[in-house]
Automatic annotation (TrEMBL):
Gene Ontology molecular functions: copper ion binding; hydroquinone:oxygen oxidoreductase activity
Function of the molecule: Lignin degradation and detoxification of lignin-derived products.
Enzyme class: oxidoreductase
Name of this protein: Laccase
Known catalytic reactions: 4 hydroquinone + O2 = 4 benzosemiquinone + 2 H2O
Localization in the cell: Secreted, Extracellular space, Apoplast
GO cellular component entries: apoplast
The UniProt record lists the keyword Amino-acid biosynthesis: no
InterPro entries: Cu-oxidase-like_N, Cu-oxidase_2nd, Cu-oxidase_C, Cu-oxidase_fam, Cu_oxidase_Cu_BS, Cupredoxin, CuRO_1_LCC, CuRO_2_LCC
Sequence similarity: Belongs to the multicopper oxidase family.
Amino acid sequence: MFSLLKFTPTKLKEKNFTKLCSTKSTLTVNGSFPGPTIRVHKGDTAFVTVHNQGRYGVTIHWHGVREPRDPWSDGPENITQCPIPPGTSFTQKVAFTSEEGTLWWHAHSSWTRATVHGAIVILPANGTSYPFPKPWGQNILIIGEWYKGDLMQIVNAARATGGEPNASDAYTINGQPGDFYNCSKENTHRFLVDHGKTYLFRIINAAMNEEFFFGVTNHNLTVVGIDGSYTKPLNTNFIMITPGQAIDVLLSANQPKGLYYIAASPFYDGIDKYENSPTTAILEYSENFKPSPSSIPMPVLPAVNDSGTVFNFTKSLRGLASQHHPANVPINVTRRIYMTVSMNELPCQNPNGKCLGPNGTRLASSLNNISFQIPQIDILQAYYWNMSGVFSEDFPDQPPFFYNFTGDTGSSTLIPSTGTRVLMFDYNEVVELVWQGTSVLTAENHAMHLHGFSFFLVGVGTGNFNNVTDPKSYNLIDPPEVNTIGLPKNGWLAMRFVANNPGVWYMHCHLERHSSWGMNTVLIVRDGDTMQTSIVPPPKYMPPCS
């Protein structure tokens, strides 16, 4: 049974926060950081009116919601809409059709999502239940980052100089840095649990540029869902979660009554160094207990650069693939795409002096050696109304050079081409896309995200993809169905999906600095032969493009 919901209007506005011994004003939704949680049942449709009372144009994206045939509400700036101007409002329709579990919403313009984000809880459809025993309680846990400086100034300075943006000053759990940061201990977030009960933790990585290991001291976790889709239970003492991912875990409160640290520590296998202090919360048993004279124990998590452990965790994920939650993995592929993911550099364009990238260049990134350029008019509008000169339909299915992708650092790939080039698909094409990590400039993990679809992760490996031998190891029985996944450093990922959602859909790295440098493209799925297989008409009002 489908239902229509109408939510309280969402107000984007500035609010003062005091963290890390200093106070600053930052953009929020309804004055909270993180923002409010949206709770729905599978099959519901929500209408959310965003009132922008801030200083900048902003858009809102419903991360992982497929929005069937309706890209008008998807949200990425200048991809499916132009920003909502200050002092105006925009209503978005959010249809929850096949998703079930945890997703999230966030701003999708510049770096405003740092503080403009919140959880989406999609409960089972009325009359159905979880594919696991109903937990005693549920908790939302959002990992984020906090910048003491003005984030817009930080981003604009980095763009002007072509260098790395300043790193954040702290990581956070539910908006609080935790016990190991200055001026933070009294506000550390606490999760109360009853001994002997089981809890569902809905964990979201809303951080801008960091992947995290996550664990709870002396407590095992059972992964039961990822990105709004159920998984086979995976018992583990930690998870690795990339920016953009949402992972559901069960935790049994079966340890001696007391206090235990919940911690998220960064994973990074590149050459640059970022804040390395963990963010913490506290798991607190609610019954009376005698406090230990020693300090609260910390969980043992992998080392910051333990890429092997990350690879094994990704490879261990399995979709539930049950009668009520089948894995409809595409088998008969009609379109194969091979896409390199690279860090690059471009010539300096700073009129005030040299740039701060390698050897005076500006930092860049690319897919298939094309660094994506965001247009001034949104691509969806240009496509729907047949406007010329906004984008070109010539993004290649293969990279321009066939070389040793994990070893080449030649100038032919170091400096990419630039442009607003998109991938075109016919309706119902069966797509296999292989992402290939490279060591051009530098090699590292990448959090790859696709709008408008969930895809099946059918294969993952290290080194160069071999199109003869590697497909023999594909999991076509119970692969996880995700919308965001970590591409291993100097490795590959194979994904499959059916292009049955007509519209304009963004695909990008969810590490914000990489996306800002051009690690993006757009997928356009042409209409089918009927109204039911075509893009719905635009709403009466869309934010104007300046």
